[in-house]
């Protein structure tokens, strides 16, 4: 069951991202309308994701990768127990990665391992999350990683919404090149070593009847966060790039809990 903890024992760091597929037909940001009208349920789903992340302290846009493993555990638990959607599928599998697997080979293996209509774009995003630019001197201790992806999907022409939580757990190593006659050895570079990595995909479907029946209570409980902002909040910034200058969301203000 998804309520079980997904972060593997000994995880050193998490890289996170989020995607949206389909059509965001949200017409109103009135809090009650977000939950009462199914046309707005993409924003309802994104609001629940951000609320759960805030409660768990899972703040990839602002916190370091090394600080996220425990928070990811809690985030998964909170998302999975939200009563406004139900678990439609949960798939766990392992993949074989050869020594020095390239980014392109990794992307191909992931694409073949995720049976969804968006597997190509999902695999590409996972490949983007690979931490192959680690600094040996500062980050050589970050060996065991979870690549985390949240996918919100609202197919065009309908009001059904799903939320996919997908994770790849793998190890990263560093080349150990010896000193040469012509000079010092190059700085060790991160690479994917031979291993059995694991993938977990849990797909939730929104229970529109629950959201409609509890629209007022949900509106009182949850801050409304649109899809675009949610993607920014759940996505780790470029490892060597600047952190966001402006806070997109007051994470610390969310003290309520789901209660129905």
Structure description:
The chain contains nine helices and seven strands. By secondary structure, the protein is α+β, with helices and mostly antiparallel strands. It has a single domain (13-240), classed as Delta-endotoxin CytB (3-Layer(aba) Sandwich). α2 (41-56) packs across α3 (69-80) and α2 (41-56) runs parallel beside α9. The model is unreliable at 1-8 (pLDDT under 50).
Structural class: alpha+beta
* Overall pLDDT confidence: 88
Describe the largest sheet. Answer: 5 strands, mixed
Fill in the CATH topology: Delta-endotoxin CytB
> What would you say the CATH architecture is?
3-Layer(aba) Sandwich
Strand-residue proportion: 15-25%
Q: Ends: how far apart?
A: 21 Å
Question: Widest sheet: strand order?
Answer: 1-3-4-7-2
What's the count of strands? Answer: 7
The ordered string of helix (H) and strand (E) elements is EHHHEHHHEEEEEHHH
Q: What proportion of the residues is helical, as a percent range?
A: 25-40%
The low-confidence parts are: 1-8
Give Rg in angstroms: 19 Å
CATH class reads Alpha Beta
Number of helices: 9
Count of the separate structural domains: 1
Shape: elongated
